[in-house]
């Protein structure tokens, strides 16, 4: 038991010796988290607890410690209190880690302490944990407990005292009872401690036994956690929430690997994660190479394991996990830079590193504030939008809202709005998830005083039928009252991964292809998924009564799928050779791409006893475009953007918008040029409407008609192709380098 006073004495001694360090780190902590602590924004999870946070929910998720704290908190969310205490736990954990590092025989200077503490404490990754006001105090308290477990682990390695060993196990199991993802945190902590001890050891031997000790502590802690959870599940059944993150056994290995690629690419491409990029692409390779050159293979190997450890659950589950579960990333970053700093003996280089870290910390503090400011803005947009649509309902239906269930169909996104970002728990709107039976949205509306009756599933199904031919928000008619319901349509309903159906067309009359009017706007194949979108109808028929299907034929199977119907009022303004043309839009989405390289896609339209079947996409031949007698304008005379680009299974899809300034967009033709040193292809693009572009230009006629798309099943010759847009208007043209490319190697 003497170890507890020993830790207190070490902590007091460290504080007395490092008042300057604490002052600098405290300044950055206030700078980074001050706005967050003083500005609460209700999110989709905390609104669930606006009225009450149920203990049974925490128990069912395997978090009994959280249930206990929630009980002591009277099952209520306390924003300022929880947020302030959570930030303090992060601060204290950072200071405790400095004591653990000293316990691993590493000599800490004041500058090295500042470097480690600033990286560890002022990290944008904490934003995702902290935004969950409902649980952030649990999460960060668990981190503090896990750091204490790491301290006792390091002490055990020094003294081999049984008390330290047992303390590490108990503290680790307590952390897991609050949040299971601290498995990865303890793994990262154990590897970090062994890494520091290996570097400090003059022989620089890789002590496998120390890692085995750490593994044994974790296994026993997991066993204790499992026993407690099994006992608690007698109180309330276990939730199946975590099963959605398990990839092994439910997905093929290729899908799992592809999912990992997408996950890590998304993580590294976030604009506030530049420090992770710097660490992964510069600091990590430097440390690995320098240790290999010095024949310290064990150190190089431990560094690689240390960097991968925060993502242990990603590899163990075979699937990506939410960003809010990556609590060990700040420790990994701080640890890598501590080792990097200590790799140099030159005071000048250490001064440069310290200065760089101080500057980076300033930007990290700014990024943290930006993320939380974004969430506050998101809440304001949500409030304004919720009040607007509710007032519109009252204007349209009067007091019917008090007696009839309200079914809200579709999603609405704020992301194009200024200051709004959406990363994990930061920025999700209450309206960007399917709202038909959303308890979260219902609680949020009630929180604003906009009460309505929740619909049953039967009523939701009835509303789907009513909404099929309704316009979407903000078009006139997006609210409709029936005898039993009020239907509000924010967007067209999208069914993902539709089930195949049996469609018998043998007894139907097949029409000639001249009777079809259609366009495939994109076939997007990315992130291992498939999304096809377009519009189609049969001439001189009612589009509202036309059923649309997609058939996908591979070598071993042929399946027919129903599509999602989308409202397309823009198409009804272009054509008048059928009725209800606004109902001709459609899309279909798969999360696992069913296409193969030789797949055949057919579009099937059925109206009564007649049908049309056509193969999509068409093979469009490249053209020869002669512009020698045209006047070439400068790049600045145009504006353009490509928002969709993919080439997979011989299908090229490119879509976006482009126009020439001061030229009528209706008279502008757009061509797609694929260029490399050996081959050039030029294809003419189809024109589409882009209503959102209107605000970009006030001096270009018909700028809404500046959209374009090209979907072409064309086998390109092997090579990497740069993408250019060629815009032609009368006797002038301009070539725009999109900066994009496709790889067909």
UniProtKB/TrEMBL annotation:
Pfam families recorded for this chain? Glucos_trans_II (PF14264)
Gene Ontology MF annotations: transferase activity
Q: Is Transmembrane helix included in the keywords of this UniProt record?
A: yes
Its transmembrane ranges are 20-42, 80-100, 112-130, 136-154, 161-177, 183-200, 212-235, 272-292, 299-317, 323-340, 352-373
Which InterPro entries does the entry link to?
A: Glucos_trans_II
**Keyword Transferase appears in the UniProt entry:** yes
Enumerate the UniProt keywords alphabetically. Membrane, Transferase, Transmembrane, Transmembrane helix
Could you identify this protein by its name? Glucosyl transferase GtrII family protein
Q: What is the originating organism of this protein? A: Francisella philomiragia
